[in-house]
Design brief:
The protein has 625 residues and is an alpha/beta fold. The protein folds into 3 domains: 108 residues, Immunoglobulins (Immunoglobulin-like, Sandwich); 410 residues, Glycosidases (TIM Barrel); 80 residues, Sandwich (Immunoglobulin-like). A hairpin with a 4-residue loop joins strand 7 and strand 8.
């Protein structure tokens, strides 16, 4: 009996024979990091290679001076192989040639080593950080608003929960606005790809317009303009003397992240017998009387059900996250990191990650979001002076304690522990921090009620609180719209405090970027911020000086100084509902006989400051002569 050749082969394949006749060469679909650099402090690089059944491949490296293939590692998922190489100091920029060989075929892969060119600028007390949510700020390129081949295809400015179309080009278009205002650094909520489905939150379907649901660490979201737009923004901002702060998320990723859809190993996530949410409690992490159970819930519980929690104790995952951070600094040239949900990360991992960045860029500012309730709690998650077994190495933190103190001080009547004493007592605890001048105080951000609403839309209180923010120790952070009185409460959702910047989108009825688009009070607020922030840039005392405060007196008068050997600035706050007058003799230790001063907000010269008169709910800023 004659059997057709093709039919025979088909039968044999179905029987599991001769499958090698159909074997294909290794199918490599992804390599991370996408490239690397010579001259790094750490010579070790671990390359993640992803492709169908790639783990069975043998890996070889063509001889390259100064580069050595150390080993390869695989996981329970056959679609991954991790390639460890060592790049010595003698290695030059060029292209490494790897060969991946399986039983039947091989494929060559070129991997680029670049020359380092990133020189991050130090973010310090000399700066004022302006927080932007790119989707809500300005739309500079309507062609990238949505893509039909992404998981979320909707853009609708009428919905508070969907994407609105703001992008990186929109920020580029308004760099001169920041220059005018006196801002020196921009912190953007995450711009990394969020190619994720809408999530059901509180019964409504919501987009990840805020950017905290990562799906691919090595891509900037196309709806913001992609990698090239981010490079352009950073380059243009640097030309104008404006620094860029990137928002990092190590704790979790989106359920649509490519790594989650095909996990290298089950232990890359925190797994529980049943779904377990974090308690959001910080105390179990440092409580010497606390339980291991509560500690585990806080750290390993998921932030939400749709944000898989990463197990940073897994060495391959830890390397992946750390190398991405290093790659970002080198590739894009960012200047600082703000680290999201800091307390929910594994602290050993965070110390390792922080050290890796600081080893390469010692002056880089890293500050974490530690939304805790006490100064001790906040200090635990940064470099501190506490005598405790575990020490965090994070240089700085978002200063939630000062944020709470300022807002509370403006809402309470003066008392032993109330009113402006809240701010005084909070700052009096700076002893616990190694570097309190590196903390990042604020009055509002994208997760809080709007400052102007919190203080009852009182314009005098508005100016008083911002005077404190811009003149106490630390690196002040403002939120887009603070400068022209944006208001609202987080009711019913956070979207209410993330409204569009009017004038940033086609069809807006007003334009807050221009004086003509702001009403009289909004212009007064803008000019107040502009005057103080631009003075601050030129003031050695406010940008480099030490901080000395005096106990509040006379039922609500609070005085402090910022000073260097060359300049002294005196801030006098009257939080009473009536005018006050007082002698300055109690401040002799720092005034040292100073007789005159200039009011930096009015430019008035005061020839005799032995006695000061201050209107109700007002702060005056005096440059001592």
């Amino acid at each position: 009996m004659k059997i057709h050749k093709n039919l025979l082969l088909l039968v044999l394949v179905q029987l599991g024979l001769f499958t090698h006749l159909f074997a294909q060469k290794p199918d490599i679909q992804r390599i991370n990091p996408t490239n690397w650099w010579v001259g790094m402090h750490n010579p070790n690089l671990q390359i993640l290679v992803y492709g169908k059944n790639i783990a069975t491949s043998k890996v070889s490296l063509k001889t390259y001076n100064g580069v050595k293939l150390k080993k390869t590692q695989t996981t329970e998922n056959p679609n991954y192989i991790f390639v460890d190489v060592e790049i010595s100091k003698i290695a030059k920029a060029g292209n490494l040639q790897f060969t991946f060989t399986n039983k039947q075929s091989s494929v060559n892969v070129s991997y680029e080593l670049k020359t380092r060119s990133a020189h991050p600028q130090a973010v310090s007390q000399e700066d004022v950080v302006y927080l932007i949510m790119p989707d809500r700020f300005a739309n500079g390129d309507e062609s990238n608003d949505k893509y039909d081949n992404m998981n979320d295809t909707q853009v609708d400015r009428k919905s508070p929960w969907l994407r609105h179309g703001g992008d990186l080009q929109g920020i580029i278009n308004h760099l001169d606005y920041f220059k005018e205002l006196g801002v020196t650094a921009l912190w953007l909520t995450p711009i990394i790809e969020n190619n994720t489905h809408q999530s059901n939150e509180g019964g409504t379907m919501r987009s990840s317009y805020h950017g905290y649901h990562f799906t691919d660490h090595y891509q900037i979201d196309r709806r913001f303009g992609g990698n090239n737009a981010y490079l352009k923004l950073i380059n243009e901002a640097h030309k104008k003397g404006i620094k860029i702060v990137q928002d990092a998320v190590y704790n979790h990723v989106s359920e649509d992240a490519w790594l989650v859809k095909d996990l290298p190993a089950k232990n890359w996530l925190h797994n529980w017998d049943k779904y377990t949410n974090t308690s959001y409690k910080d105390q179990p992490l440092y409580d010497i009387n606390g339980s291991k159970f509560d500690n585990k819930i806080t750290e390993e519980g998921w932030f939400t059900a749709f944000l898989p929690d990463l197990n940073q104790k897994e060495p391959l995952l830890a390397n992946y996250l750390i190398q991405h951070a290093l790659w970002t600094v080198e590739y894009f040239g960012i200047d600082a990191w703000r680290i999201d949900t800091y307390i929910y990360n594994d602290m050993d991992f965070m110390n390792r990650c922080n050290k890796a960045i600081l080893d390469e860029h010692p002056q880089m500012l890293l500050f974490g979001e530690s939304a805790v309730n006490t100064v001790i709690g906040q200090s635990y998650f940064t470099k501190n002076n506490l005598n405790i077994p575990f020490k965090c190495n994070l240089p700085s933190s978002c200063d939630f304690q000062v944020q709470g103190a300022i807002n509370t001080a403006l809402k309470e009547n003066f008392g032993w522990n109330e009113g402006v004493n809240r701010l005084y007592q909070t700052l009096a605890q700076d002893i616990v921090y190694q570097n309190p001048e590196k903390l990042v105080p604020f009055v509002e951000n994208h997760d809080t009620d709007r400052y102007f609403s919190v203080i009852g839309e009182d314009f005098n209180k508005y100016k008083l609180g911002l005077t404190w923010l811009y003149t106490v120790r630390g690196i002040p952070q403002m939120y887009y719209g603070t400068e022209f009185l944006m208001k609202n409460f987080k009711n019913p959702t956070d979207a209410e405090v993330r409204k569009d910047f009017s004038g940033g989108f086609n069809g807006d009825s007003g334009n807050k970027f221009l004086p003509s688009g702001r009403n009289a009070q909004e212009n007064a607020a803008f000019e107040f911020n502009k005057k103080l922030l631009n003075y601050r840039k030129t003031s050695e005392a406010l940008t480099k000086g030490k901080f000395m405060q005096f106990t509040p007196f006379d039922n609500g008068v609070y005085v402090y100084f910022r000073y260097t050997d060359k300049q002294k600035v005196m801030v006098v706050s009257n939080t009473k509902i009536s005018e006050t007058s007082f002698s300055t003799e109690n401040f002799a230790e720092i005034m040292k006989g100073t007789k005159s001063a200039k009011n930096i907000m009015t430019d008035e010269v005061l020839n005799d400051i032995s006695t000061l008169k201050v209107p109700a709910m007002t702060a005056i800023i005096l440059e001592l002569k």
